[in-house]
Design goal:
By secondary structure, the chain is an alpha+beta fold. The protein has helices at 96-104, 123-134, 136-149, 181-191, 202-209, 220-223, 233-238, 245-248, 263-269, 315-326, 334-348, 368-402, 410-429, and strands spanning 51-55, 61-65, 77-81, 86-93, 117-120, 155-161, 167-173, 194-199, 280-281, 286-293, 298-303, 310-314. The strands form three sheets. It has a five-stranded antiparallel sheet with strand order 2-1-4-3-5. A four-stranded antiparallel sheet has the order 9-10-11-12. Strands 6-7-8 form a three-stranded mixed sheet, with helices on both faces. The termini are far apart.
């Protein structure tokens, strides 16, 4: 079975899913659900919960009642009741977890206002559903061209067809109210289907389309976050963040939802801190707060006129000075409190018993300069010896060349030549 959110190829397998449509949660990390009660049996005599959670394109989910008592499991394609006709969706949750989800979203399940599950989707239903899904991308491009031609200040972000192809829902975002009566006529004439326009916010648009955040993970609004609360710049100020709109804004262009995640812990830590506008009065002068460290519990003060000389204090020390100022008792200077803080930090790290040296595994560096000097000396000695030997050889050669050569007697040469000729003649005669 192919995934309901990826574009499918000719053989029915999704293009982008590495599992080829056989993933257990089914949804490409968009509001995925893990049924941790799947392996647990119900108590004896208790009927299974007759509601199921059905997922449609992207992050749209709805609850439907299983009036026919069909055997439904996670990942089944079902045909469900719609305002007109039927829609096709994928079951994302069954059993008691659906009851928990409905209580969490405050959906009363004891009423008859819920839509019904008609049947499991047949092959013909699936073929029609996949055919209309393949038309959505081309329709989105064409609809944007029509909106630009009509000079409408809006952005069409997504299109979702109903399972039977009888209706198409256009999701759009706009800063102001848009008169799209002429636009609907153009769409109906162009696409030959019923048109429904639905305006969504910028956060809902990011949740439907998905994306990767600056942290490197998928967007919270597309994976698990469904409660969109307002985020203000005060959250960034409390957390000592720079008010840079490019870094604080998310994919939707609004302030990141994650600014609210750690806000409560920062608010609790700031309860012990004095106000940064509060000045400390001493005999040496008036000190003004320059910086605070929330989780370390430290504040840095500087005297007026000595802005480069900061003094670190704890929250208790700063509160003591403020109480002394209220009682009009004299405070000598901030240096006394800073000296106490330095002594405390030194005493905390005074016990070093059992600690090994950090350089115990370091190898001592060898003195390469001495080796180079020694090598140069030995090389010099060898070169001098070679030169001496070469000089001796040349001297001996010169002595030999100076010796007078002996002159041979020519008569002796003639006698030797005669003797040699006689020997050769005797050999031939033999």
């Amino acid at each position: 079975m192919a995934c309901g959110n990826c574009g499918t190829t000719d053989n029915g397998q999704p293009r982008g899913c590495k599992n080829n449509g056989t993933c257990g949660t089914d949804g490409c990390n968009k509001l995925t659900v893990f049924d941790w009660l799947a392996n647990m049996d119900l108590p004896q005599g208790q009927k299974p919960f007759d509601f199921v959670e059905v997922r449609f394109k992207n992050s749209r989910k709805e609850f439907f009642k299983n009036t026919e008592e069909l055997s439904l499991h996670i990942g089944d394609l079902v045909a469900v009741e719609a305002a007109s006709g039927h829609d096709i969706g994928i079951i994302s949750l069954t059993g008691e977890l659906v009851r928990i989800q409905m209580k969490k979203k405050r959906e009363p399940y004891d009423t008859d206002t819920f839509s019904k599950v008609y049947r499991k989707a047949s092959q013909r239903d699936i073929d029609v559903w996949t055919e209309v899904k393949d038309r959505e991308e081309a329709m989105k491009v064409r609809s944007r061209q029509i909106a630009i031609r009509l000079n409408l200040e809006m952005k069409i972000s997504d299109i979702e067809f109903q399972g039977d192809g009888s209706k198409a829902t256009f999701y759009y975002t706009a800063e102001e109210r848009v008169d799209f009566r002429q636009l609907i006529k153009e769409f109906a004439h162009e696409f030959h289907t019923r048109i429904e326009m639905r305006q969504i916010g910028f956060r809902q648009e990011a949740a439907r389309l998905g994306g990767i955040g600056s942290c490197g993970r998928e967007l919270c609004c597309s994976t698990w976050l469904t409660d969109f609360r307002s985020v203000t710049t005060g959250a960034a100020r409390y957390q000592q963040l720079s008010l840079n709109p490019q870094k604080l804004a998310g994919q939707c262009g609004k302030l990141k939802c994650c600014l609210n995640y750690e806000l409560d812990s920062y608010m609790d830590a700031l309860k012990d801190f004095p106000k940064t506008e509060q000045k400390l009065k001493t005999e040496k002068g008036t000190a003004v707060c320059q910086k605070i460290d929330i989780f370390q519990g430290h504040l840095w003060y500087a005297y007026e006129g000595e802005w480069m000389n900061w003094h670190k204090l704890t929250t208790t020390q700063a509160n003591e000075i403020i109480e002394a100022n209220k009682k009009e008792t004299a405070v000598a200077s901030l240096e006394e409190y800073a000296a106490e803080l330095i002594e405390d930090t030194k005493s905390d790290f005074g016990n070093v018993v059992g600690q090994d040296s950090l350089t115990r595994f370091d190898q001592p560096q060898r003195n390469r300069k001495k080796r180079k000097k020694n090598n140069s000396k030995t090389r010099g000695k060898r070169d001098s010896k070679k030169q001496e030997n070469a000089a001796d050889d040349t001297a001996q050669k010169s002595k030999r060349s100076r010796r007078p050569q002996r002159k041979r007697n020519p008569s002796v040469k003639k006698e030797q030549s005669k003797n040699n000729n006689d020997k050769q003649n005797n050999d031939r005669s033999k």
